[in-house]
Write a structure and sequence with these properties.
It is a single chain. The chain has twelve helices and 21 strands. With about 425 residues, it is α/β, with parallel strands linked by helices. The chain has three domains: about 230 residues, FAD/NAD(P)-binding domain, CATH 3.50.50.60; about 120 residues, D-Amino Acid Oxidase, Chain A, domain 2; about 55 residues, no CATH class. Strands 4, 6, 7, 8, 15, 16, 17, 18 and 19 form a nine-stranded mixed sheet that branches. A six-stranded mixed sheet has the order 10-2-1-14-21-20, sandwiched between helices. Strand 12 and strand 13 form a beta hairpin. The two termini are about 35 Å apart.
């Protein structure tokens, strides 16, 4: 839909959160004809959207909680290199989340969750296409595929159920020997014995630049971007009628809550309790890695993802459950590099930068998308976990449908805010 085709709509929408999800929501609402204001205390894409691995995870059908998660839990918590860890002091507050996570990890629930995720993932390319076309940003995302590598037959066997879960839902998978994996990615060392390639996965050259480009396009089309801290809502007799920030108030007919992990505090002001935890991720960027990585990589044994980007090689790992305000443990980022160098000899850490950010994660690995249970003019759009970049445009499309009173193509029942 170009500017000449934009319908007329006299309503004003305020989107809280200028990460990739909030930015896509703002764009889709704008394309639907609404006047839109996008608010964030940071610049577009400078929080969790900044630090992700950069992949559009079209193969990410399996949820975080799987049937084997429960018996692996002790190792996860005790092993400092495991990708899923918990700070013990945070356990009392996080206990309700983990109880629901346990239930979601049962096989029947995991299969149902995989169906929901597969449906959403199947809409990613069609949802992103008009935004990228109109913004002239198609060059920021390219089809690179994703190579998962294994150092033993045992580690390959451990992911068979997750791979089979993907196959049953149409994900293309190519099995590789160690030599075939090295032929695809010559930087790999001799430790690799097996490989699995997902040809449908795409990669962005920069999650930050992608978000900034879309946010600039939003402004070029007349959207308002405000760098303010949202404090809450202005309530009238019929419910919220505006958003209150540290500098004033923004009246709105429609409000969209897309503030990542901070959304749970604002949702509470609206009378809705959501189970949302800060799943903190760490990354290290090597500006001059010393090796040329052709294909994005995931090491199943070392729990490290290698993402080649325009500013260097990004190494990501770890899902640390801790309080949002907890100090970073940058030793984790250092362990990421140590594990990566064992897999790919010759990596150069000179000039490396480290980062930590909080993903907004639900216990069932499904985002929260839909109307507030109490106020029809407030739409929730958060809780995407590892799929914020991937599902941002899908979420924006759903939000615009709801704002216009249209029934989305996606079944919203599994995504509803009051499901916990």
């Amino acid at each position: 839909m170009n500017d000449q085709q934009t319908p007329k709509d006299d309503r004003h929408a305020v989107v809280i959160g200028a990460g990739i999800v909030g930015t896509c929501c703002a764009l889709y609402l704008q394309r639907a004809g609404l006047a839109v204001t996008l608010i964030d205390r940071d610049g577009p894409g400078e929080a969790a959207s900044f630090g992700n691995a950069g992949a559009l995870g079209l193969a990410s059908v399996p949820p975080l909680g799987m049937p084997d998660t429960l018996w692996k839990a002790p190792k996860m918590i005790l092993d400092p290199m495991h990708p899923l860890t918990l700070r013990w002091g945070h356990l009392p507050k996080a206990l309700p989340w983990f109880l629901h996570f346990t239930l979601a990890s049962l096989r029947s629930r995991a299969e149902a969750i995989a169906d929901v995720r597969a449906d959403l993932l199947g809409r990613v390319n069609d949802s992103y296409a008009p935004l990228l076309d109109d913004a002239g940003a198609k060059d920021l995302i390219h089809n690179a595929g994703l190579l998962m590598v294994f150092e033993s037959d045992r580690s390959r066997a451990e992911v068979e159920y997750a791979l089979e879960m993907r196959r049953r839902r149409g994900v293309k998978i190519e099995e590789l020997s160690g030599d075939e994996a090295r032929e695809m990615e010559p930087a790999l060392g001799p430790l690799i014995k097996r490989g699995v390639f997902f040809p449908q996965v795409s990669q962005t050259v920069s999650p930050l630049r992608l978000t900034q480009t879309l946010a600039q396009h939003f402004q070029n089309r007349g959207g308002m971007l405000r760098r303010e801290t949202v404090k809450g809502f202005d309530f009238g007799p019929d419910g919220p009628k505006g958003v209150v920030t540290d500098t004033g108030q923004h009246d709105a007919d429609i409000m969209v809550l897309a503030a990542g992990v901070w959304s749970k505090f604002l949702a509470r002001q609206l009378g809705t309790r959501v189970l949302l935890e800060a799943e903190r991720g760490y990354h290290t960027v090597l500006p001059n890695p010393g090796v040329d990585i052709r294909v994005p990589l995931v090491s199943e044994d070392r729990h490290v993802t290698f993402g080649p980007m325009e500013d260097g090689l990004r190494l990501t790992s770890m899902a640390e459950f801790a309080a949002i305000e907890a100090a970073p443990d940058y030793a984790r980022a250092e362990r990421i590099f140590a594990a990566a160098r064992e897999l790919i000899p010759g990596l150069d850490a000179e000039g490396a930068t480290e980062w930590v950010g909080s993903r907004p994660s639900t216990p069932d690995s499904i985002p929260v998308i839909g109307p507030s249970p109490r106020f029809a003019n407030v739409l929730f759009a958060f809780g995407h976990g590892h799929l914020g970049l991937t599902l941002a445009a899908v979420t924006g499309r759903i939000v615009a449908d709801l704002a216009q009173g249209r029934r989305p193509e996606t079944d919203l029942n599994p995504l509803r805010p009051d499901r916990f």
